[in-house]
């Protein structure tokens, strides 16, 4: 995974990252684990403190800018991807037949 952090306006940091590689997820149909290829852009707007509002373009994550933990942020992104619906090739083929 590659990423950059960039300060935009005061108290905001824009995180641009690209997730790529294999991720093992359980199949939602047969529960067998299988690998998916990740190829996703992740853009998060980090805000220093408690943010009351919303942004049309980005997900806003409240953090303490001084202790940004990129690994933690990425782990939560990966958890999100894992919680999506996935079905393995075997099950995909069954559905098609
Ligand atoms: Zn399956």
How would you explain this protein's 3D organization?
This protein has about 100 residues and is of the alpha+beta class. It has one domain (about 1-95). The protein is built from two helices and four strands, in the order E-E-E-E-H-H. The chain has helices spanning about 70-85, 90-95; strands spanning about 1-5, 10-25, 35-50, 60-65. A four-stranded mixed beta sheet has the order 1-2-3-4, with no helix packed on it. Strand 1 (about 1-5) and strand 2 form a beta hairpin. The longest helix is centred in the C-terminal third of the chain and has 14 residues, at about 70-85. It is elongated. The mean pLDDT is about 85. The structure holds zinc ion. Zinc ion (ZN) binds near residues 27 and 90.
Question: What is the topology?
Answer:
Layout: E1 2-7, E2 12-26, E3 33-48, E4 59-63, H1 70-83, H2 89-96
Parallel strand pairs: 3-4
Antiparallel strand pairs: 1-2, 2-3
Bound molecules: zinc ion (ZN).
Zinc ion is lined by residues 27, 29-30, 32, 87-88, 90-91.
Attached small molecules = zinc ion
Oligomer: single chain
Return Rg in Å: 17 Å
Structural shape? elongated
Strand content of the residues, in percent? 35-45%
Number of domains: 1
Average per-residue pLDDT, rounded, comes to: 85
Count of helical segments? Answer: 2
- Number of E-state strands: 4
Distance between the termini: 37 Å
- Widest sheet: strand order? 1-2-3-4
Structural class: alpha+beta
Order of helices and strands: EEEEHH
Task: Please summarize what this structure is.
23% of the residues lie in helices and 43% in strands. It has 97 residues and is of the alpha+beta class. Strands 1-2-3-4 form a four-stranded mixed beta sheet, with no helix packed on it.
